[in-house]
């Protein structure tokens, strides 16, 4: 399938793994800057997935829970405000950290977090139950990445809905960190073994975008719509910004 054919058949590309400097300590661009850059690059929308309370986060942990969540959401709200004014879809998500093991959470929002403080110290299994009760989705982010902040690879096939099989920082030539395509090869094989849906994202931290994400034949209308599309078996393509794959992780 030629690149033009992919764009024609699956014209709605979404960045599903994106950080902002307002919440993620490792990010360097604001939500507005990320949204503006993504629209200019041709994306149909983005999911802001900043690091949560036990991840690489820069919000004061001494804040009361409600205040902390409101501060945590500023990067998303900044991006969403720009998106609303410029006909660009911006959806909420977050990246949950468990001592280096990370999960992308979709389908809940800031108000849900405020109403469910128990999520903060939930186990991986409890997280899965709580997010499911809310109609959301848990995706294991870059499950085979090896870095100093990841003590060991830990897998939870019974407590996730899917696997981030394509992470652009592993294989996109523009990436300057986590460079090892084998991480994606292992993640796709793991997802296939457990018959889990596969997603893709860039894990981007500034406005110099990689172009990775998930491409659909139709417009995604909300974070919950994205969850339904992935979990319901809807067709889509995956990309690291250079190569393209079907939803099962096979090259196309």
Tell me what the structure shows:
This protein has one domain: Alpha-Beta Barrel (TIM Barrel). 31% of the residues lie in helices and 23% in strands. The chain contains nine helices and ten strands. The chain has helices at 3-9, 31-40, 65-72, 74-85, 110-115, 124-133, 168-171, 182-193, 223-231, and strands at 12-18, 45-51, 89-98, 101-106, 137-140, 162-167, 198-201, 212-216, 236-240, 244-246. A hairpin with a 3-residue loop joins strand 9 (236-240) and strand 10 (244-246). The protein is globular.
Characteristics:
TIM Barrel, 31% helix, globular, alpha/beta, 23% strand
**Would you tell me the overall average pLDDT?**
94
Q: What quaternary form is this?
A: single chain
CATH topology: TIM Barrel
Count of individual beta strands: 10
Along the chain, the helix and strand elements come as HEHEHHEEHHEEHHEEHEE
Strand arrangement in the largest pleated sheet: 7-6-5-4-3-2-1-8-9-10
Number of domains: 1
CATH architecture: Alpha-Beta Barrel
Classified by CATH, the class is Alpha Beta
What's the SSE blueprint?
Layout: H1 3-9, E1 12-18, H2 31-40, E2 45-51, H3 65-72, H4 74-85, E3 89-98, E4 101-106, H5 110-115, H6 124-133, E5 137-140, E6 162-167, H7 168-171, H8 182-193, E7 198-201, E8 212-216, H9 223-231, E9 236-240, E10 244-246
Parallel strand pairs: 1-2, 2-3, 5-6, 6-7
Antiparallel strand pairs: 1-8, 3-4, 4-5, 8-9, 9-10
Helix pairs in contact: 2-4
Entry summary:
The protein is built from 9 helices and 10 strands.
